[in-house]
Amino acid sequence: MIDYTPFWETLENSKETTYTMIYHYYISSSVLDKLRKNKPISTKTLNDLCALFNCGPEKILQYIHSDEDQHPWTNRKT
């Protein structure tokens, strides 16, 4: 599972707010909602967030193993 807790920590430790992200950097409120709910975002959005905070992706997201993760290779017929 992709978890965006690092994003919220990065945001909290920056001078930015969700308001400035929406109205100054044009990050949509729907993207922020996806981050809140750990929903998928595009690599372009990930790139934009890394550029905005001048950081690597580890400051935006982390992978947490979950038994509920879907593994496409487990359903593959041989």
Concise structural overview:
The chain is mainly alpha-helical.
Keywords:
78 residues; mainly alpha; two-stranded antiparallel sheet; 4 helices
Task: Produce the secondary structure layout.
Elements: E1 2-3, H1 5-12, H2 18-23, H3 29-36, H4 43-53, E2 62-63
Antiparallel strand pairs: 1-2
Description:
There is one protein chain. The protein has 78 residues and is mainly alpha-helical. It has four helices and two strands, in the order βααααβ. The protein has a two-stranded antiparallel ribbon. The longest helix has 11 residues. The two termini are 26 Å apart. The model has no long low-confidence stretch (mean pLDDT 92).
Strand proportion: 5-15%
Q: Which parts are unreliable, with pLDDT below 50 for 5 consecutive residues or more? A: none
Major sheet summary line? 2 strands, antiparallel
Element pattern in H and E: EHHHHE
Report helical residue fraction.
Answer: 40-55%
**What does the overall shape look like?**
elongated
Overall mean pLDDT stands at: 92
Helix- and strand-based class?
Answer: mainly alpha
- Tell me the number of strands: 2
Our measurement of the CA-to-CA distance between the termini, rounded to an integer number of angstroms, reads: 26 Å
Strand order of the largest sheet: 1-2
Q: Count the helices. How many? A: 4
**Radius of gyration, CA atoms, in whole angstroms:** 15 Å
